[in-house]
Amino acid sequence: MNVRRSVAVSAATIMLGGGLALAAPAANAAPTDGPAVQDSWSRLWTADISGDYLKSHGQWVSQGYKQPNGSRMARGVFSCSGNGTAKLTVLNLDTGQSKSKTHGCKGDRYHVDPVSYRNGETVKLILKGSKNTKVEAWAGR
User: Which of 55, 58, 77, 95 is spaced 20 to 30 A from 23 at the CA atom?
Assistant: First the structure.
């Protein structure tokens, strides 16, 4: 096989492989809207927080939790509906690193940018708002 044909075949293989990777993401991969793209994301847990609870307490704070071994990032996802806004913060208690996202309650899912995580560290999610809100905790590898 000559060099030109070898280069053309290699380029076609790379382009085809890249196209397939974009067309078929992992089954449990969460959409990414932040700067860091992860190989895979796994949903750890979900919670439905009532608007009445948020109005009377001002905020909801999850228990501290540890992510699965091998996780490098923690992220939160939230959705709410009705007039108002919600703010979700992902906090790594051991490093103090936190990321937040504030959005209007329009029924869409909003992703908080990932926070770095190492094995054994503790993460909390903090929600502020006044509407019924679904919160999800995700671990990235």
Answer: 77
